[in-house]
Amino acid sequence: MSQTVQANSLITLNYRIELDNGTTMIDTFQGTPATLQLGAGEMMPALEACLAGLAVGERKTVTLSPEQAFGDYKDELVERVRREHMAEENVEPMSIMEFVAPDGSRYQGLVREVNDDVAVIDFNHPLAGKTIRFEVEVIGIL
Predict the structure, then answer these.
(1) Mind listing the pLDDT tens digit for each residue in 61-95?
(2) Domains in the chain, ordered, with CATH?
(3) Residues 99, 127: Cα–Cα separation, whole Å
């Protein structure tokens, strides 16, 4: 009996994430495979669920709605931040910035707009609100 992906499996895999318009966002098939521990919070639950039961050498493709994937896009996660409250002086549109919350946790945000007084920061995941196609091939299971 061949080994299959189970809860808490350590797996090596190639994967591709594409938008429903065919744009490839991530692709490890032509590069270095990923090694992930299931159940450790490294993958979203819907992606872990699609891996369950796969054996080495198997491939699978699933389409995930925004709710199953990276969540809905939320307007309330777009904030206007006064430039005087930003640590970096040279802020460019479409750059990623890291912010530290009062509790010490860190958040990344995408700078959407910037002027002399305010920057508009989007704290949504870059794929929030998007349907994605996830293709995976299991290379190894430990």
Answers:
(1) 999 999 999 999 999 999 999 988 787 778 889 99
(2) 10-71+127-141 (3.10.50.40), 75-122 (2.40.10.330)
(3) 20
